[in-house]
Amino acid sequence: MSDILTVLDVEKISFSRAIRGYNTEEVEDFLEKVAGSLQTYSERIKNLEVQLSRFDEQVREYTELKHSLQEALVLAQKSAEERVSSAESKAEVIIAEAEAQAHKIVIGAKDRVDAHKREIERLRQIRYQFVAEFKGLLAKFGSMLNSLEAPADERENENEGKDCQ
User: Fold this and answer.
1) Residue 129: inside a domain, yes or no?
2) Quick check: is 104 in a domain?
3) 162: exposed, middle or buried (C-beta count within 10 Å: 0-12, 13-18, 19+)?
4) pLDDT tens digits, one per residue of 130-143
5) Contact 10, 38 (CB under 8 A)
6) pTM
7) In the structure, what pLDDT confidence band is assigned to residue 30 with cuts at 50, 70 and 90?
8) Is residue 2 included in any domain, yes or no?
9) Where is average pLDDT lowest: 13-22, 68-77, 85-94?
10) What is residue 98's predicted lDDT score, i.e. its pLDDT?
């Protein structure tokens, strides 16, 4: 017999008879009750072991699921970080290109302003030269008119002198 009693051990046990011993009927009734209780406990233990086995399996499945979810979360975080990094890189490139284009536009605008200033200065010089030449022509024509008027005045003076005589 082992240390742990089974239902069969209790059912098959027999005691030797002694004088002034216990009432055999009472002992047998008690042993039947003990055997019944052992049977009930044994069934409960088996049921609990089955439940425990199911729970262990569920815990294992949940643990695997937890690990899978953690891995998925890590991958999602890495993916998100990569996307953010990629977006930041693209944004930096776009900003650099926009700044370069803006710089070209500003330089082009400054060049056009400088060209317009040069053109305005050239036109001012032409105007100044034209005004100077025009004044020269006017002065020349004025001299010519004066020279044309002088002989007419002299003729009038001569004609007046003849009339006085």
Assistant:
1) yes
2) yes
3) exposed
4) 999 999 999 999 99
5) yes
6) 0.45
7) confident
8) no
9) 13-22
10) 97
Cβ within 8 Å of residue 38, ≥6 positions away: 5, 6, 7, 10
Six token digits for residue 66: 């937890």
The percentage of the chain sitting over the pLDDT mark of 70, rounded to a whole number, equals 89
Identity of residue 7: V
How large is the average pLDDT for residues 13-32? Answer: 80
Over the chain, what is the mean pLDDT?
89
Give the closest residue to 11 by CA, choosing from 47, 40, 35, 44: 35
Q: How far is CA 39 from CA 3, 7, 15, 114, in A?
A: 17, 6, 21, 110
Alpha-carbon distance of 16 to 70, in angstroms, equals 67
Note whether 7 and 35 are within 8 A (CB). yes
The residue assigned the tokens 């937890």 is: 66
What total number of domains does the chain contain?
1
Q: Which domain, by its residues, includes 46?
A: 7-164
Answer for the pair 34, 10: CB distance below 8 angstroms, yes or no: yes
For residue 13, is it within any domain? yes
Single-letter code of the amino acid located at 40: T
Q: How many angstroms separate the CA atoms of 48 and 107, rounded?
A: 86
CA distance 59 to 52: 10
